[in-house]
Amino acid sequence: MTSPGTRRGWSPDTLLAGYESCTLPGWVPAPGGPSARAVAAGGAAPLLTLVRPPRAPEAPRGVVVHLHGYNDYFFATHLADAFVDAGWAFLALDARRAGRSLRPGDLPHYQGDLREQASDLSRAVAVARRTWPGLPVVVHAHSTGGLVAALWAHAHRARRGADAVVLDSPFLSSERSWVRPLEDGALRALARRRPMQVVASRPSWYAGRMAERWDFDTSLKRPQGVPARAGWLAAVRAGQARVARGLRIRVPVLVARAARSGADVVDGADLDTADTVLDVTTIAALVPRLGADVREVVVDGGVHDLALSRAEPRTAYLSAVRDFLAGVR
């Protein structure tokens, strides 16, 4: 799919009526580096896409930059509406090889180094700061995007990154998750030899259930799932190992998760009321390792993407986020 924007500026978004999008060139990894494999996989330099809603507050309190997860892209207009109604401008990022940024020949969502997606996030935050100078910027990130955002915020602790971070069910650990990794040593060796080797592939019954309740492009958020490849999983595991050692994020962090996990099985009862992708107990255990000012909210009845939960838990989640944003300066 060709991105709907142009490098010259904003144009009407082809996926969401009234929205606009633009594409920007992404960071190209150094030849021979671990992330260079991702460029070779797609055969072309990466692009990232920014998406903005049709309205923004007249005098915004700040800007929210949203980053999606794996097998995902931005489509949740109600999320943008919630931030705008709370007085915040909003930008969504479709990172390289995802959503609007996916191009023919790309391996969907592949990155051989999490710094690839982190560099896309840096570009998005830079655009937010140029567009709304002097205002606070909050990164709102989901699942794998949440892992990337946490590492990015840690890396930017000594220079200007975000002013606060909201992590929606971040993929901080692979333990009891949708993908069960090989032993790390074997995984790293496989990633060096055959980074594109598929190490896990299965349908996402969760995505299928979400497609029954939400309007999105199932070629971009796929009920059949997106295979996990050795290079991608090794990069994720390296990032998760860094989280386990402890980060020093210096800005306020809100970590939100569902109250419980459940089985991702066809027609499963938990698909509407639990996180069927990640294990919430491992998220809870790693929350204290992110930084000194970290708060946690637990959403009863929430699903993996809390913003896609049923009405009551979704409202509870968005209310908690708005309360958190009220304290951001």
UniProtKB/TrEMBL annotation:
Serine aminopeptidase S33 domain mapped to chain residues: 59-259
Family matches, as Gene3D superfamilies: alpha/beta hydrolase
Endpoints of the signal sequence: none
Keywords: Hydrolase
Domain of life: Bacteria
GO MF assignments: hydrolase activity
SUPFAM superfamilies: alpha/beta-Hydrolases
PANTHER family: PHOSPHOLIPASE-RELATED
UniProt protein name: Alpha/beta hydrolase
